[in-house]
Each structure stands twice: as structure tokens, then as C-alpha cells.
Specification:
- With 145 residues, this protein is an alpha+beta fold.
- The two termini are 24 Å apart.
- Helix 1 packs antiparallel against helix 3.
- It contains three helices and four strands; from the N terminus they run H-E-H-E-E-E-H.
Length: 145
Amino acid sequence: MSLFSSINISSTGMTAERTRMDVISENISNANTTRTSSGTPYKRKLVVFSESKPKFSDVLNDTLSKSNKSNGVKITAIKEDDSPYKVVYEPGHPDANENGYVEMPNVDITKEMVDMISATRAYEANITALNSSKSMFMKALDIGR
């Protein structure tokens, strides 16, 4: 494992969690959007993470040299949630159907807030890991003096 791979892993984690927080913010801000440009209510979005895999040749070289290399995390996709829309009775709403029901976005504010707290905590954990690596590097430099 190289000297800076821990910093690289933490930085990819922070980037991924920051994107997740942005998507959650978009979901919260569109929780009452009943009509998008496609004419349907807003659909909740989800961020999909995966391990950032190195090239095969890098893995082979690392296996031969008995080192264990990781490249952190990457965002695989931002996909729409397939859960059904909420149906609310509001006969005066401009998007109400002939029976007075309005299809509302499939966004649950409570769930979004829990996801936001989780993403914030994961971001903070990556900052702590980054600061620990930085501290170890500084101590190593002090020892070398």
C-alpha cells in the first residue's frame, strides 16, 4: 500500500458522500413537485456506489508483489426510485385527476433526513481518516529530523 493511497481512498469517499448529499438535497427540494418537464411527478433519486476497481494488470502486479491495493469508491449510477407515487385527495389542485386525486412524488422527508445524517456522518468519518493519515505523515517527518 503506497503512502498516499489512504488519502486517495478518503478523498474518493468524501466525493461520493458529497454527491449523495447533493442528490438528497434535490429530493427534499422536489418533495412537492407534482409536474416535471416529462409531465409526471418528481421521482426520488438514489446514488449507487461501488468499489473503484483497478485495471487487471495493476491487480496482477500487486498480487505478484504481495501488496494489497484499493482505489476507494466510485459512483456507479444515480437512478430513480421505482416505488409508487403517493396519492393525495386535493380536488382543487391543478394536477388533480377527474376524481380529485393528485399523484405526489415518492419522496419521504423523514427518510431523506435520515439518509442525509448518514451521509454527513460518513463524510465526517472520511475527514477523520484523512486527518489521521496526515497526522501520521507529520509524525514520521518529525522522527526523521
